[in-house]
Amino acid sequence: MTKHTINQQPYEVASIADLCMDIIVASSSRPEFGQVELLADHYHLDLGGSVGIFATQYAKLGGKIALMGKTGDDTAGAIVHSRLTEAGIDGRYIEKIPGEKTAMGLNIAVGHDRAMLAYLGTMELIGPDMLRDEWTGLARHWHIGSYFLLRRLIPAWPGWLQKLKSRGVTISLDTNWDPEGNWENVLQLLPQVDVFLPNLAEALAITGKRTLQEAGTILVGICKLVVVKCGEDGAAIFFNGQHAMYPVDPEIADGLKIADTTGAGDNFDAGFIYHWLQGSDIAICVREASRCAVSSLRSLGGVAGQIKNKA
Protein backbone atom coordinates (compact mmCIF):
# COMPACT_ATOMS: atom_id res chain seq x y z
CA MET A 1 0.00 0.00 0.00
CA THR A 2 1.02 3.65 -0.36
CA LYS A 3 3.10 4.92 2.54
CA HIS A 4 1.52 7.83 4.43
CA THR A 5 4.46 9.42 6.18
CA ILE A 6 3.47 11.86 8.92
CA ASN A 7 4.89 15.31 8.22
CA GLN A 8 5.96 18.18 10.45
CA GLN A 9 2.52 19.70 11.07
CA PRO A 10 1.69 20.30 14.75
CA TYR A 11 -0.56 17.24 14.94
CA GLU A 12 -0.97 14.01 13.01
CA VAL A 13 -4.77 13.97 13.23
CA ALA A 14 -7.43 16.61 13.84
CA SER A 15 -11.12 16.10 14.52
CA ILE A 16 -14.23 17.87 15.73
CA ALA A 17 -15.40 15.94 18.77
CA ASP A 18 -18.81 14.91 20.03
CA LEU A 19 -17.59 15.21 23.62
CA CYS A 20 -19.91 13.90 26.30
CA MET A 21 -19.92 12.06 29.59
CA ASP A 22 -21.10 8.46 29.49
CA ILE A 23 -23.00 6.80 32.31
CA ILE A 24 -22.74 3.05 31.80
CA VAL A 25 -24.95 0.75 33.86
CA ALA A 26 -24.37 -3.00 33.65
CA SER A 27 -27.21 -5.28 34.62
CA SER A 28 -28.24 -8.90 34.24
CA SER A 29 -31.89 -7.76 34.10
CA ARG A 30 -33.58 -5.69 31.41
CA PRO A 31 -35.16 -2.48 32.73
CA GLU A 32 -38.95 -2.49 33.00
CA PHE A 33 -41.37 0.42 32.94
CA GLY A 34 -44.25 0.69 35.40
CA GLN A 35 -42.01 1.73 38.30
CA VAL A 36 -40.34 -1.67 38.51
CA GLU A 37 -37.12 -1.36 40.49
CA LEU A 38 -34.35 -3.80 39.62
CA LEU A 39 -30.77 -4.01 40.87
CA ALA A 40 -27.81 -3.21 38.61
CA ASP A 41 -24.54 -5.13 38.75
CA HIS A 42 -22.20 -2.19 38.25
CA TYR A 43 -21.92 1.36 36.89
CA HIS A 44 -19.18 3.53 35.47
CA LEU A 45 -18.78 7.22 34.60
CA ASP A 46 -16.35 8.14 31.84
CA LEU A 47 -15.59 10.17 28.75
CA GLY A 48 -17.90 9.30 25.89
CA GLY A 49 -18.58 10.27 22.31
CA SER A 50 -17.34 8.48 19.21
CA VAL A 51 -14.57 10.98 18.49
CA GLY A 52 -13.67 11.40 22.16
CA ILE A 53 -13.07 7.66 22.46
CA PHE A 54 -11.23 7.56 19.12
CA ALA A 55 -8.98 10.42 20.20
CA THR A 56 -8.02 9.02 23.60
CA GLN A 57 -7.10 5.64 22.11
CA TYR A 58 -5.12 7.31 19.32
CA ALA A 59 -3.22 9.40 21.88
CA LYS A 60 -2.53 6.39 24.12
CA LEU A 61 -1.00 4.59 21.15
CA GLY A 62 1.48 7.47 20.96
CA GLY A 63 -0.17 9.72 18.38
CA LYS A 64 -0.69 13.48 18.44
CA ILE A 65 -4.27 14.58 17.88
CA ALA A 66 -6.00 17.96 18.01
CA LEU A 67 -9.61 17.98 19.17
CA MET A 68 -12.08 20.80 18.63
CA GLY A 69 -15.27 20.74 20.65
CA LYS A 70 -17.48 22.23 23.33
CA THR A 71 -18.44 21.22 26.87
CA GLY A 72 -20.34 22.91 29.63
CA ASP A 73 -18.47 24.48 32.53
CA ASP A 74 -19.96 21.82 34.80
CA THR A 75 -19.10 18.60 36.63
CA ALA A 76 -19.59 16.44 33.56
CA GLY A 77 -17.38 18.80 31.55
CA ALA A 78 -14.69 18.59 34.21
CA ILE A 79 -14.69 14.78 33.95
CA VAL A 80 -14.41 15.00 30.15
CA HIS A 81 -11.47 17.41 30.31
CA SER A 82 -9.77 15.30 32.99
CA ARG A 83 -9.94 12.16 30.82
CA LEU A 84 -8.57 14.02 27.80
CA THR A 85 -5.67 15.38 29.85
CA GLU A 86 -4.92 11.92 31.27
CA ALA A 87 -4.72 10.59 27.71
CA GLY A 88 -2.23 13.32 26.76
CA ILE A 89 -4.58 15.37 24.59
CA ASP A 90 -4.09 19.13 24.37
CA GLY A 91 -7.42 20.77 25.20
CA ARG A 92 -6.66 24.24 23.83
CA TYR A 93 -9.28 23.97 21.07
CA ILE A 94 -12.07 22.76 23.38
CA GLU A 95 -14.35 25.51 24.64
CA LYS A 96 -16.12 25.50 28.02
CA ILE A 97 -19.52 27.19 27.75
CA PRO A 98 -20.84 28.74 31.02
CA GLY A 99 -24.50 28.08 31.68
CA GLU A 100 -24.72 25.13 29.25
CA LYS A 101 -24.79 21.42 30.04
CA THR A 102 -22.22 18.98 28.73
CA ALA A 103 -23.68 16.29 26.50
CA MET A 104 -24.56 13.07 28.32
CA GLY A 105 -25.05 9.48 27.24
CA LEU A 106 -26.82 6.79 29.26
CA ASN A 107 -25.91 3.23 28.25
CA ILE A 108 -27.65 0.29 29.89
CA ALA A 109 -25.75 -2.90 29.08
CA VAL A 110 -27.47 -6.26 29.47
CA GLY A 111 -25.29 -9.12 28.26
CA HIS A 112 -24.04 -8.30 24.74
CA ASP A 113 -26.90 -5.88 24.10
CA ARG A 114 -27.43 -2.32 25.26
CA ALA A 115 -29.99 0.49 25.26
CA MET A 116 -28.88 4.08 24.87
CA LEU A 117 -30.27 7.53 25.58
CA ALA A 118 -28.39 10.70 24.62
CA TYR A 119 -28.75 14.30 25.77
CA LEU A 120 -26.92 16.45 23.21
CA GLY A 121 -26.37 19.58 25.34
CA THR A 122 -23.29 21.50 24.16
CA MET A 123 -22.94 19.14 21.22
CA GLU A 124 -25.78 21.02 19.57
CA LEU A 125 -23.73 24.23 19.72
CA ILE A 126 -21.16 22.77 17.30
CA GLY A 127 -21.74 24.36 13.91
CA PRO A 128 -19.97 25.50 10.73
CA ASP A 129 -18.22 28.32 12.61
CA MET A 130 -15.91 25.64 14.03
CA LEU A 131 -14.55 24.84 10.57
CA ARG A 132 -11.92 27.56 10.59
CA ASP A 133 -9.56 28.06 7.68
CA GLU A 134 -6.52 28.22 9.98
CA TRP A 135 -7.29 24.68 11.14
CA THR A 136 -6.81 23.17 7.67
CA GLY A 137 -3.06 23.22 8.33
CA LEU A 138 -3.13 21.68 11.80
CA ALA A 139 -2.76 18.04 10.82
CA ARG A 140 -1.82 15.57 8.12
CA HIS A 141 -5.14 13.76 8.53
CA TRP A 142 -8.73 14.57 9.54
CA HIS A 143 -11.07 12.06 11.14
CA ILE A 144 -14.84 12.60 11.00
CA GLY A 145 -17.01 10.76 13.52
CA SER A 146 -20.57 11.09 14.85
CA TYR A 147 -21.56 12.50 11.49
CA PHE A 148 -25.29 12.39 12.24
CA LEU A 149 -25.15 13.65 15.84
CA LEU A 150 -23.16 16.74 14.82
CA ARG A 151 -26.06 17.60 12.56
CA ARG A 152 -25.37 21.32 12.12
CA LEU A 153 -22.09 20.38 10.41
CA ILE A 154 -23.68 18.12 7.78
CA PRO A 155 -24.24 20.85 5.14
CA ALA A 156 -20.73 22.24 5.73
CA TRP A 157 -18.69 19.05 5.38
CA PRO A 158 -18.47 18.93 1.55
CA GLY A 159 -16.86 22.38 1.31
CA TRP A 160 -14.56 21.66 4.25
CA LEU A 161 -13.36 18.39 2.76
CA GLN A 162 -12.57 20.20 -0.49
CA LYS A 163 -10.37 22.64 1.44
CA LEU A 164 -8.60 19.79 3.21
CA LYS A 165 -7.99 17.87 -0.01
CA SER A 166 -6.56 20.98 -1.66
CA ARG A 167 -3.87 20.93 1.05
CA GLY A 168 -3.16 17.21 0.62
CA VAL A 169 -4.85 16.22 3.88
CA THR A 170 -6.18 12.65 4.04
CA ILE A 171 -9.60 11.96 5.52
CA SER A 172 -11.29 9.11 7.38
CA LEU A 173 -15.00 8.80 8.13
CA ASP A 174 -17.06 6.76 10.56
CA THR A 175 -20.65 7.95 10.36
CA ASN A 176 -22.18 5.88 13.19
CA TRP A 177 -25.87 5.05 12.84
CA ASP A 178 -28.40 7.55 11.50
CA PRO A 179 -31.53 7.51 13.74
CA GLU A 180 -33.57 8.97 10.85
CA GLY A 181 -32.24 6.66 8.12
CA ASN A 182 -31.01 9.43 5.79
CA TRP A 183 -27.82 8.14 4.16
CA GLU A 184 -27.72 10.17 0.93
CA ASN A 185 -25.34 12.83 2.26
CA VAL A 186 -22.80 10.16 3.18
CA LEU A 187 -22.63 8.93 -0.41
CA GLN A 188 -21.89 12.49 -1.54
CA LEU A 189 -18.92 12.72 0.85
CA LEU A 190 -17.29 9.39 0.05
CA PRO A 191 -15.43 10.46 -3.13
CA GLN A 192 -13.31 12.77 -0.95
CA VAL A 193 -12.76 10.19 1.82
CA ASP A 194 -9.58 8.09 1.90
CA VAL A 195 -10.68 5.56 4.56
CA PHE A 196 -14.33 4.73 5.24
CA LEU A 197 -14.97 2.74 8.44
CA PRO A 198 -18.63 1.65 8.71
CA ASN A 199 -19.89 -1.36 10.58
CA LEU A 200 -21.78 -4.00 8.62
CA ALA A 201 -25.25 -2.66 9.47
CA GLU A 202 -24.25 0.84 8.35
CA ALA A 203 -22.66 -0.43 5.12
CA LEU A 204 -25.86 -2.31 4.24
CA ALA A 205 -28.08 0.66 5.13
CA ILE A 206 -26.02 3.15 3.13
CA THR A 207 -26.03 1.00 -0.01
CA GLY A 208 -29.45 -0.60 0.35
CA LYS A 209 -27.87 -4.02 -0.24
CA ARG A 210 -28.34 -7.28 1.64
CA THR A 211 -24.84 -8.76 1.66
CA LEU A 212 -21.42 -7.61 2.74
CA GLN A 213 -19.92 -8.35 -0.68
CA GLU A 214 -22.54 -6.30 -2.52
CA ALA A 215 -22.29 -3.35 -0.13
CA GLY A 216 -18.49 -3.32 -0.08
CA THR A 217 -18.26 -3.51 -3.86
CA ILE A 218 -20.48 -0.45 -4.23
CA LEU A 219 -18.66 1.53 -1.51
CA VAL A 220 -15.16 0.84 -2.81
CA GLY A 221 -16.30 2.10 -6.20
CA ILE A 222 -16.77 5.48 -4.52
CA CYS A 223 -14.11 5.51 -1.78
CA LYS A 224 -10.49 4.33 -2.06
CA LEU A 225 -10.36 2.10 1.02
CA VAL A 226 -13.40 0.64 2.80
CA VAL A 227 -13.05 -1.14 6.14
CA VAL A 228 -16.28 -2.83 7.22
CA LYS A 229 -16.35 -3.81 10.91
CA CYS A 230 -18.12 -7.14 11.37
CA GLY A 231 -17.96 -7.59 15.15
CA GLU A 232 -16.73 -10.98 16.33
CA ASP A 233 -16.23 -12.02 12.68
CA GLY A 234 -13.46 -9.44 12.25
CA ALA A 235 -13.26 -6.89 9.45
CA ALA A 236 -13.69 -6.91 5.67
CA ILE A 237 -11.34 -4.81 3.55
CA PHE A 238 -12.26 -3.54 0.10
CA PHE A 239 -9.25 -1.96 -1.62
CA ASN A 240 -7.81 -1.76 -5.15
CA GLY A 241 -10.61 -3.91 -6.57
CA GLN A 242 -9.92 -6.67 -4.05
CA HIS A 243 -11.88 -8.00 -1.09
CA ALA A 244 -10.36 -9.75 1.91
CA MET A 245 -11.81 -10.91 5.23
CA TYR A 246 -9.64 -10.60 8.34
CA PRO A 247 -10.95 -12.67 11.28
CA VAL A 248 -10.03 -11.62 14.81
CA ASP A 249 -6.73 -13.23 15.80
CA PRO A 250 -7.60 -15.93 18.40
CA GLU A 251 -4.61 -14.80 20.47
CA ILE A 252 -6.09 -11.30 20.76
CA ALA A 253 -9.48 -12.61 21.90
CA ASP A 254 -8.09 -15.29 24.22
CA GLY A 255 -10.08 -15.40 27.46
CA LEU A 256 -12.28 -12.50 26.41
CA LYS A 257 -15.23 -11.77 28.68
CA ILE A 258 -17.21 -8.86 27.28
CA ALA A 259 -18.02 -6.27 29.94
CA ASP A 260 -19.47 -3.68 27.54
CA THR A 261 -19.42 -3.00 23.80
CA THR A 262 -19.41 0.81 24.15
CA GLY A 263 -16.78 2.39 21.90
CA ALA A 264 -15.35 -0.84 20.48
CA GLY A 265 -15.77 0.41 16.91
CA ASP A 266 -14.22 3.78 17.75
CA ASN A 267 -11.21 2.11 19.32
CA PHE A 268 -10.91 -0.07 16.21
CA ASP A 269 -10.89 3.13 14.11
CA ALA A 270 -8.11 4.62 16.23
CA GLY A 271 -5.90 1.55 15.93
CA PHE A 272 -6.45 1.31 12.20
CA ILE A 273 -5.80 4.98 11.43
CA TYR A 274 -2.75 5.12 13.72
CA HIS A 275 -1.05 2.27 11.87
CA TRP A 276 -2.33 3.33 8.44
CA LEU A 277 -0.68 6.72 8.91
CA GLN A 278 2.54 4.90 9.82
CA GLY A 279 2.41 3.22 6.40
CA SER A 280 1.78 -0.25 7.82
CA ASP A 281 0.48 -3.10 5.71
CA ILE A 282 -3.32 -3.50 5.73
CA ALA A 283 -3.09 -6.79 7.63
CA ILE A 284 -1.15 -5.07 10.42
CA CYS A 285 -3.60 -2.17 10.49
CA VAL A 286 -6.53 -4.57 10.93
CA ARG A 287 -4.79 -6.73 13.52
CA GLU A 288 -3.81 -3.76 15.69
CA ALA A 289 -7.26 -2.20 15.23
CA SER A 290 -8.83 -5.46 16.44
CA ARG A 291 -6.46 -5.47 19.39
CA CYS A 292 -7.71 -2.00 20.40
CA ALA A 293 -11.35 -3.00 19.96
CA VAL A 294 -11.06 -6.24 21.93
CA SER A 295 -9.13 -4.55 24.73
CA SER A 296 -11.92 -2.02 25.17
CA LEU A 297 -14.52 -4.79 25.44
CA ARG A 298 -12.97 -6.00 28.68
CA SER A 299 -14.07 -2.92 30.67
CA LEU A 300 -17.18 -0.79 31.07
CA GLY A 301 -17.18 2.27 28.81
CA GLY A 302 -15.04 2.98 25.79
CA VAL A 303 -11.98 4.39 27.56
CA ALA A 304 -11.05 2.34 30.64
CA GLY A 305 -9.87 -0.71 28.68
CA GLN A 306 -7.87 1.13 26.03
CA ILE A 307 -4.37 -0.01 25.09
CA LYS A 308 -1.61 2.22 26.42
CA ASN A 309 1.61 2.24 24.40
CA LYS A 310 2.59 5.74 25.49
CA ALA A 311 5.18 5.95 28.25
Shape annotation? globular
Biggest sheet, spatial arrangement of strands: 5-4-1-8-9-10-11-12-13
Which CATH C-level class is it? Alpha Beta
Instruction: Write the CATH fold name.
Output: UDP-N-acetylmuramoyl-L-alanine:D-glutamate ligase
Write out the CATH superfamily name: Ribokinase
Summed over residues and divided by their number, the pLDDT gives a mean of 93
Compute the gyration radius: what is it? Answer: 19 Å
Give the terminus-to-terminus CA distance: 29 Å
Question: What's the architecture in CATH terms?
Answer: 3-Layer(aba) Sandwich
How many strands appear in the DSSP assignment? 13
Structural class: alpha/beta
Q: What percentage of amino acids are in beta strands? A: 15-25%
Number of helices: 8
Return the domain count: 1
Helix content: 25-40%
Unreliably modeled segments: 1-7
Main β sheet profile: 9 strands, mixed
What is the element string, with H for helices and E for strands?
Answer: EEEHEHEEEEHEHEHHEEEHH
